[in-house]
Amino acid sequence: MTLTTQEKPAPDVDQQTNLNDFAITVGTKNGSGSQTSNLTIMRALFKMGIPVAGKNVFPSNIQGLPTWYTIRLSREGFLARRATQEIVIAMNPDSFAKDLASVEPGGIFMYGDHIKLAVDREDILVYEFPANKFARESGASTELRDYVVNMAYVGVLAYVIGIDMDAIYAALDFHFKGKQKPIDLNYGVIKAAFTWASENLEPQNRFRVEPMDGTKDYIMADGNTAAALGSIFGGVHFVAWYPITPASSLGEKLGEHLPQLRKDPETGKNTFAVVQAEDELAAIGMCVGAGWSGLRAMTSTSGPGISLMTEFAGLAYYSETPIVVWDVQRMGPSTGLPTRTSQGDLLSVYVLGHGDTKHILLLPGSVNECFEFGWRALDIAEQFQTPVFVLSDLDLGMNTWMTKPFDYPETPLNRGKIYWEEDIQNLTHKWGRYLDVDGDGIPYRTVPGNTHPTAAWFARGTGHDEYTRYTETPEDWIKNMDRVAKKFVTARTQLPAPVIEQAHHMSTNGSSPKPARIGLISYGSTDPAIEEARDRLAKQGIETDYMRIRALPFHPDIREFIANHEMNYVIEMNHDGQMHQILRMEYADLGGQMRSLAWNDGLPLTARWITQNLLAHEEN
Questions:
Q1: Burial bucket for residue 355 (CB in 10 Å: 0-12, 13-18, 19+)
Q2: Of 241, 401, 407, whose CA–CA distance to 326 is shortest?
Q3: pLDDT value at position 1?
Q4: CA atoms in the 13 A half-sphere facing the CB of 615
Q5: Residue 38: which of 142, 181, 136, 175 has the closest Cα?
Q6: How many Å apart are CA 382 and CA 281, to the nearest integer?
Q7: Which pLDDT belongs to residue 477?
Q8: Taking the complete model, does pTM exceed 0.85, yes or no?
């Protein structure tokens, strides 16, 4: 039943109060403007010093279908999706029944009184509020009322759980970039709803928020923005992209920030080019041409776009042309679920292209690594003269995360092995584009603009010898493919090494810690859920070591980690356990020490799922 009373002071926090450790889910309609309200809540909590993370679950249509936004608060700093929803706010009649059923027993359900549906639960607190009333009385135009009405639940929630109103105002100021008119309009609705709630709703102390210092030295950002900024700081010259969910914002952010950061200070001219291509095939084709000409070139896409890019990816691999491709993964196969997250492209991208094609993959596990791999991928592509694919996903790319500020690259750009006129002039041997003079599989290249008469070369995707001459000779083919394969042996120790965390610390006498019996292996955005699952397992007396893989081909430390553990659980978000398959192919002799824990329902993994399934395997 709905609780109403006259104004009462906020209740004192007691031992039964859940403080700064619960999840809030808001159910609205796609396209209703609720994202501004949701981000206002999350940023206000962040400004109060409470660790938070937001997850947006939205449909793939443009407007009208149900959408949900979940904000997790964690005083311990855990940022993975929470399996439970303690507070649910319903603004959409179409999802009302589902929203009501999703509230944890003992939780809170809030809804706008424009929804004329029965509430049939006695195990939760229920608050009804007149959302449309606040919108009508706000002074907003008819067109804006459908948007500002969402601010009503911000104000009611602020009263119910104790969100600081100054923090809410600061969040609005940030969102609207200091523009007073929209700030005042939205804050007016929030304040009116807060005042109404304080006069009409029964105070509660089940779930409360209090200021803490859990966000000091952190910022909030999404992975796509971080990737764009990292690429800019990595000196990207040329970007060609085609819109596709969930990668579109990466290209958009490049188009937004490049003009701000990359103009020649003397001429005022741009030192970059951004092209929105007619499709993904054209986008990667342009990048191959730009990479061949000496520009740092990149594109961004998702699974369906990767499928279209296959032929050009093979051309870049065999012609040894450096490009970078960001794959912000979503659910497949086919069109799949465009607005759900997944790690389902790993295996296909690793060997994208027919024949014996193999690519370098970078696997960021945080927003900060999206920035780092933004610039590092451009270095690696030119160092190894090959396509580099960076596999992010929707959860990491589009959702807002707490993150440490980005570190400016401390090393100069690595352009790899490039000969200029003087270099060729001083050679004691004949230069060949595909000649391996250093024994690492990586030849020297020239780019247009080199005026030496022997600097020109003909790029081809057909059979060629060390001097780019066409050949169908079996010996030349084998020699060339062996050299290209050698590049990937070289890359193993020069790509980002795995991050390894051990349960046991260094002993007092300085000896190495003894490995735990169980090893956990993951990559990408599953990291927050695994960190939390390790904490849960440790509280049950089960200690685990943890390795997060950050690149393929595999670093030598990966084999050592697997060999040192009796059982290694490979945790990932796809149906078939693709990383598990690749590890078993690479380390067949260690196959018995690896087991797959794979799940792929379109939602980010939770610590609960990992813990329960690992324990179930251990019992068997």
A1: exposed
A2: 241
A3: 34
A4: 14
A5: 175
A6: 22
A7: 97
A8: yes
Q: Where are the alpha helices (DSSP H) in 71-150?
A: 96-102, 131-136, 142-148
Give the pLDDT score at 620.
84
The reported pLDDT for the residue numbered 32 is 85
pLDDT given for residue 505 in this prediction: 63
Q: How far apart are CA 545 and CA 560, in angstroms?
A: 13
Local mean pLDDT, 10-residue blocks, the chain (620 residues): 40 74 96 93 98 94 87 97 97 97 98 96 97 93 91 98 98 97 96 98 96 97 98 98 98 97 93 97 98 98 98 97 98 96 98 96 98 98 98 98 95 96 95 96 96 93 96 97 96 98 70 89 98 97 97 98 98 98 98 98 98 95
Q: Could you tell me the two tokens for 454?
A: 């022997």
**Cβ of 368: how many Cβ atoms within 10 Å?**
20
C-alpha to C-alpha distances, 456 to 161, 436, 592, nearest whole angstrom: 69, 18, 52
What are the strands, taking DSSP E only, across 543-590? 544-549, 551-552, 567-572
What region does 346 belong to: left with phi over 0, alpha with psi -120 to 50, or beta? alpha
Tell me how far apart the alpha carbons of residues 475 and 471 are, in angstroms, rounded to a whole number. 10
Distances (CA, A) of 407 to 230, 370, 375: 10, 11, 11
Residues sharing a CB contact under 8 Å with residue 615, sequence separation 6 or more, in sequence order: 537, 540, 542
Look up residue 496 and give its two tokens. Answer: 């980002």
Spell out a b/e string for 226-265, using b for 16 or more CB atoms within 10 Å of the CB, else e.
bbbbbbbbbbbbbbbbbebbbbbbbbbbbbeebeeebeee
Classify 139 in phi/psi space as left (phi over 0), alpha (psi -120 to 50) or beta.
Answer: left
d(CA 320, CA 315): 8
Give the list of residues 6+ apart from residue 169 with CB closer than 8 angstroms, or none. Answer: 183, 187
H or E element at residue 325:
strand 323-329
Give, in order, the Cα–Cα distances in Å from 318 to each of 17, 130, 358.
62, 64, 10
Query: By three-state DSSP, how is residue 394 classified?
Result: helix
Dig out the tokens for 62 from the structure. Answer: 């443009």
pLDDT at 510: 63
